[in-house]
Amino acid sequence: MSAPIMIFLGTAGSGKGTQAQKLSENLDIIHLSTGDLLREARDNKTELGKAAESYIAAGDLVPDALILDLIKESLTDPKIREKGCILDGFPRTIAQAEGLSSLLEALSISLDKVFLFDISLEETIERLGGRRICATCHRIFHIKHNPATAESHPCDGNLKIRVDDTEEKIRYRYTVYQEQTAPLIDYYRSKLVTLDASEAPDKVYETIKGQIMALEE
Ligand code: AP5
Ligand code: MG
After folding, report:
1. How many other C-beta atoms lie within 10 A of the C-beta of residue 151?
2. Sign (positive/negative) of CA torsion 176, 178, 67, 21?
3. CA of 187 to the centre of ligand 1 (A)
4. Region 91-114 average pLDDT
5. Confidence of residue 1 (pLDDT cuts 50, 70, 90)
6. Burial of 4 (0-12, 13-18, 19+ CB in 10 A)
7. Could you tell me the pTM of the whole model?
């Protein structure tokens, strides 16, 4: 079995980034988050970042062509084949899924699983309202469910609130997800594993880890 290639699919605040960070640290799998890459480009004021900034702030999807260029560069890294990869928040449209399929085919890599993080809008509003992200190490925290401590946040960098984490933007991102991303659930039906993302982080983690271990058997 080659190193696992997985997609994390789910609404804003469903816990994709939290799980991907932990799995990447513990299992040495590459974590590719298009959201993180775009925010980094925005903060560094690159051409991509300038083009993406208004979409991110509004909660709209960045155009497919820009995203596919971005992901193509990341996927051609030989480490992907060696260590495996979690695609967090990509693809998000059928066009992106088709683009991914062509890219993987050209690289002779196959997609193993698509994890769907299933959770209600109400729960994500509560989660994202309390989310804090370190500007230095990019770790994700929550003021109540996962507060930053000396142990969990050794770098002690500044904790930030994302510009798109207002209740109005969260509700809007949810409608964007339903319209443009939810069709991927059917598209990936044969590889789909649905997770109860409202469970505690450790429980969700063990379920995903169990699925990854089963792939490697
Ligand atoms: P992106 O960064 O991908 O954001 P998202 O998909 O909207 O999801 P989030 O990062 O908000 O949530 P998450 O599921 O990662 O939750 P987290 O683990 O942080 O995209 C942002 C923007 O970039 C898009 O709107 C778009 O503009 C652009 N973009 C990105 N990719 C694109 C693409 N492919 N195409 C086009 N445009 C794209 O957890 C949330 C909170 O909950 C945290 O505080 C955490 O501590 C807490 N938490 C996590 N798990 C649990 C749990 N089990 N119990 C209790 N609390 C929990
Ligand atoms: Mg995320």
Report:
1. 6
2. positive
3. 21
4. 97
5. low
6. buried
7. 0.98
Query: Could you read off the pLDDT of 39-97 as tens digits, one per residue?
Result: 999 999 999 999 999 999 999 999 999 999 999 989 999 999 999 999 999 999 999 99
Which 8-state DSSP code applies to residue 166?
Answer: S
Domain ranges for the chain: 5-119+181-214
For this structure, is 162 an active site residue?
Answer: yes
| Ligand 1 binding residues, C-beta < 6 A | 10, 12-18, 34-35, 38, 55-56, 59-62, 67, 89-90, 92, 96, 127-128, 130-131, 140-142, 145-146, 164, 173, 200-201, 204
Q: Give 2's pLDDT tier (boundaries 50, 70, 90).
A: confident
Question: What separation in Å is there between the alpha carbon of 40 and the centre of ligand 2?
Answer: 13
| CATH hierarchy code of domain 5-119+181-214 | 3.40.50.300
